[in-house]
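Exam prep: given the inputs below (a chain plus magnesium ion), describe the expected output before reading on.
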Amino acid sequence: MIDRETVLANLERYDLGKATVGMVGSHSALDACDGAVAEGFRTLAVCQVGREKTFTHYFKAHRDASGKVYRGVVDETMVLDRFAEVMDPKIQKKLMDRNVLFIPNRSFVSYSGIDAVENDFQVPIVGSRNLLRSEERGDERDYYWILEKAGLPYPRKVERPEDIDRLTIIKVHHKVKKLERGFFTAQSHEQFLEKSQDLIRQGVIEKDFLKDARMEEYIIGPVFNLDFFYSPLEEKGSKIELLGIDWRFESSLDGYCRLPGKQQVELEEDGILPEYTVCGHNSATLRESLLENAFALAEKYVSATQKHYGPGIIGPFCLQTCVDKDLKFHIYDVAPRIGGGTNVHMAVGHPYGNALWRREMSTGRRLSMEIRRALEQERIEELIT
Ligand SMILES: Nc1ncnc2c1ncn2[C@@H]1O[C@H](COP(=O)(O)OP(=O)(O)O)[C@@H](O)[C@H]1O
Ligand SMILES: [Mg+2]
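Solution:
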């Protein structure tokens, strides 16, 4: 892990009056850019050839003579052959010459690899660099380990396929769409064998998928991805904020669910199983009596990260939960960074974020608001790793 001193030394050389909010152009980049513009920053997206137009063209920022944005949210782009080239020292230097404060999103880590993010990326990151590894499911101290340490509820792990005795989700990487999911469900060992054979035959999962698989109890209930924010700077109010709640559209699961039950069964008999590739987001709220329980989860998570992953979480994080029939939360995934579903409240904010801050407050905006406050209070190094 690159030491914080090295990164802070790079930050020393910045002209912070010209701080630019940068990120990999993918995932939640539009929300981060929109929020940065709303808070008065310039923005820079690192793009990949072939998927850059969203940033270089369609959402390109146009400013008037006074510098006020009247259209779009992305001031500058760097279009690379591959996202991973963001690790190239020359590119890193360019970013630092532009005074970029870098927002780590999931695309950044997925395309560059966690080792490079930890060891090679010298650009100041807004957030907790060391926690990013906890997302690598199967690592020794992954998010399940943190949840265990924190005493937080997560779905019961199933060790071996032979042990499947109730509805179980098998989390596997997709064979072809490398960064996507090849998830499936089974309620018995027999069904596990049947379905996995179908998926191997269809080229959805690898033959030896089991070696990296996570199997756990399937929680029957709605999904609530809780988009929280932890502010190291806040001194009067709560340091933990609930900004929004999202849930995802997944293909082909959502199409499957909109068919009559009989056709779902027929499809399954033909070996056509739903896939879980995220392709959109929606917004939700919680019944009020559950809100305090949601905050309790966040309080425990934050404490555990401070204890075991110092300095602990900084800024946005997302606890991805299902709520069961007894209204209990189960956390099945944790993003220790800006969540993947925050575009749902981009620019318009979210009932919770807006109610708290008395104006439109998306995750992207909250992030940049924290940066702005840190700069005003000369505490920016508290947000940087
Ligand atoms: N234990 C579980 N019970 C019910 N649904 C789950 C469970 N784990 C994951 N899911 C579903 O799978 C999807 C993604 O799971 P997640 O663990 O977040 O994968 P990823 O790391 O790819 O984001 C979500 O739609 C969620 O509803
Ligand atoms: Mg997830």
